[in-house]
Amino acid sequence: MWYGKEAFDDLKGEKMEEFLSVVEGGHLSDLGGLTTPTSNRWATLISGCWEKTASERKSLTDCKSMGSQW
């Protein structure tokens, strides 16, 4: 929750179901088109964790640092 809004609040109904289905299947969903500041921050964090090359992925320290800035 961020400023009284849930993360990915702009994904509702079928869009949320599709998003969850893709992620639960082990794939990074298309995070384009998100509109809230909360969604964009989470999308940045998630994208950094899903880099194809392991050395380019965010570390736990990086993730913790990003989260503490919110």
Structural domain tally: 1
Total number of beta strands: 0
Which stretches are low in confidence, meaning pLDDT under 50 for 5 or more residues running? none
Distance between the termini: 11 Å
Question: What is Rg?
Answer: 13 Å
Q: Globular, elongated, flat, extended or rod-shaped: what is the shape?
A: flat
How is the main sheet built?
none
Percent of residues in helices comes to 40-55%
Number of helices: 3
Q: Give the rounded overall mean pLDDT.
A: 78
Order of helices and strands: HHH
Explain what the structure shows:
- The structure is a single chain.
- The protein has 70 residues and is mostly helical.
- The protein has one domain (16-68).
- The protein is built from three helices and no strands.
- It is flat and about 35 Å long.
- The N and C termini lie close together (11 Å).
- The model has no long low-confidence stretch (mean pLDDT 78).
